[in-house]
Every structure is written in structure tokens, then in C-alpha cells.
Amino acid sequence: MSDGKIRGQAVSEEQIQAWADEAEAGYDVTKLRRRGRPPAGDGPGEVVPARLDAATLAALDRQAKAEGLANRSEAIRAAVRAWAHVA
Is the pLDDT higher at 76 or at 28? Predict the structure, then answer.
């Protein structure tokens, strides 16, 4: 038995060998989960810092929740696109 653990569960040598065999057989890269942030437009994004007061942030959070947006960044992007008339 291996000393290794994943999420607190012991990993057996058999499981490690099964994973190694699977990797050596190759993966269909089209079915692999993408990592990292999703694209925010047509190209790479640029961070634009902005300071907002507590009342504005609270309103932003309420509106994001009402529209089913996942987070502040999505809400800010949606607002800027609407204001700038960008699809």
C-alpha cells in the first residue's frame, strides 16, 4: 500500500498503476476539462483595477444575483458591455 493520499483517502499501488496505464494509453484531448479562467471576449483579457464604495458593491452584488451572474467580475463585464454597446 502506498503512503500517498488524495483528499484524505489512501491510494493503493494498484490504483496508481491503473492511472499510469490509462495515461500511457493516451487521452482524447477534446474530452479533457479545460483549466483556467474562461475567455472574457475575443482575446486575452487585461486587468483594469477600479475602486468601488460599499454601497456600489452591494448594489452590484444584488444585481448580479438577480440576473443569475456568478460573480462581480461577470456583472462588471456585462455592465460595461451594455454601456459600451459591445456584444
Answer: 76
Name every residue whose Cβ is closer than 8 Å to that of residue 70 and which is 6 or more positions away in sequence: 64
Instruction: Name residue 9's amino acid.
Output: Q
Rounded Cα distance, 16 and 10, in Å: 11
As a whole number of angstroms, the distance between CA 87 and CA 85 comes to 7
DSSP 21-65: HHHHH---GGGSPP-SPPP-SSS----------HHHHHHHHHHHH
The letter for the amino acid at 83 is W
pLDDT tens readout for residues 25-50? 998 888 887 777 666 677 778 889 99
Average pLDDT, whole number, for the chain?
A: 87
Treating both helix axes as pointing N-terminal to C-terminal, what angle do 72-84 and 54-66 enclose, rounded to 10 degrees? 90
Q: What angle do CA 23, 24, 25 make, to 5 degrees?
A: 90
